[in-house]
Give the backbone structure.
Amino acid sequence: MKTALITGATGGIGRLLVEALVGRDYRVIGVARNEERLKELQSLGNFDYIVADLRERNVPKVIRSELRNLGVERLDVLINNAGFGILKPLVEQSEEELEEIFRVNTIAPVALTRELLDLIPRGGKVVMVLSGVVFVNVRDLPSYGASKAALHYLSVNLEHELEKKGITLIRVYPKQVSTPFWNDMVPQGTLHPKDVVSAIITAIEKNKREVFIPSYLKLVKYLPRWPVFNYRFKF
């Protein structure tokens, strides 16, 4: 039985990923802050969880220790899915908020991958859930866009480092998704999270390295300059 670890496992894309991989006979380890919601997922079977807050500096080591306690010695798939945004002007965001968003969205995925790297075998997969905002300037979410753009840059480089170890890094770029991320202010034109999950599962199974959802979003990265254009959500 293959084993997968998913951060941000209790809502939106993460929860559906748990369900999809359990349904494909994976043992899934979910990571999130809310233990009550993690416990709900145990009814799926083949599911264990780790309560952890990715805002904390030592959380990769905590997750490593908890995996040891669960008897996990191999991870076939690591999905760095957790993330959040701050929907207000940059000048209104505190230093603490900026530190938190970069720690969760940018630093934690790379640090966790590094910490768990020796558990991932040749042929294993690391998934980075990025965003289409990497290629455009989204004025509604300036710190979110910056944190995902930084993760994109790091992921492109990490991809080549992991390739030497026989591990595939999959970069996923969805447009806005209808999840609790938006706190009941869901913009027009959002994707359903199941569409993103379906694309991620296909990428894992077919060994893809880059996924745009919807596929036409890929055109943006070929335009001649960054930021390609300014974009505002319509609520």
